[in-house]
Design brief:
Elements: E1 5-8, H1 13-19, E2 28-32, E3 45-48, H2 55-66, H3 70-75, E4 91-97, E5 102-107, H4 110-113, E6 119-124, E7 130-131, E8 142-148, H5 154-164, E9 167-170
Parallel strand pairs: 1-2, 2-3
Antiparallel strand pairs: 4-8, 5-7, 5-9, 6-8
């Protein structure tokens, strides 16, 4: 079975850009509002709703796309059978890196962070990125992806990450 993903997205294209690193872009369908079109690459498979908060409208579009897909079926609360991928065994943790308001003038490199146990990859904000209020649970200077074999490893990984990560800002 080839992977097929339906992403419900309100213009936060970081999610789309990260997803297509793991699933071919032609296998990703994005449900969004027309006003967000310019934020996506020109070859993204976009499908539109008038109001992304309208669950009925979103489900109608999802059903038209592919109601047999495991991810779609799960989102529509249907029965499905799906085999887990063994490409990365264990647990994959997505760790958001802390952020504060201001212009980012320095940040750890991926090379510096790669020595953390279980490191898979990282997406970091470039120097020059400006962060402003309100900061929320989606605000981060980056995300580090870590492979764990057991959840008890997380505390040590966080200690390592804390000792290797740095960021500096100017107002």
């Amino acid at each position: 079975m080839s992977e097929h993903v339906i992403l419900l997205n309100s213009g936060k294209t970081d999610a789309y850009c990260h997803l297509v690193k793991f699933v071919s872009g032609d296998r990703v369908d994005v449900i969004t509002e027309r006003k967000y079109t310019p934020l996506y690459p020109h070859d993204a498979n976009l499908h539109y709703v008038h109001d992304i908060a309208d669950v009925t409208e979103v489900l109608d579009v999802a059903r038209k796309l592919d109601s047999s897909s495991p991810i779609t079926a799960a989102s529509l609360n249907r029965e499905y059978d799906c085999e887990a991928s063994e490409s990365i065994p264990g647990i994959v943790a997505n760790i958001d890196l802390p952020v504060q308001t201001g212009r980012l003038v320095d940040i750890s490199t991926i090379d510096e962070l790669s020595s953390v146990d279980g490191f898979i990859s990282a997406d970091l904000a470039p120097v020059g990125t400006c962060f402003s209020e309100p900061l929320n649970s989606s605000s981060a200077t980056g995300v580090v992806y870590i492979q764990l074999y057991h959840d008890t490893e997380l505390a040590e990984v966080l200690r390592q990450l804390k000792s290797r990560y740095h960021a500096a800002y100017e107002s």
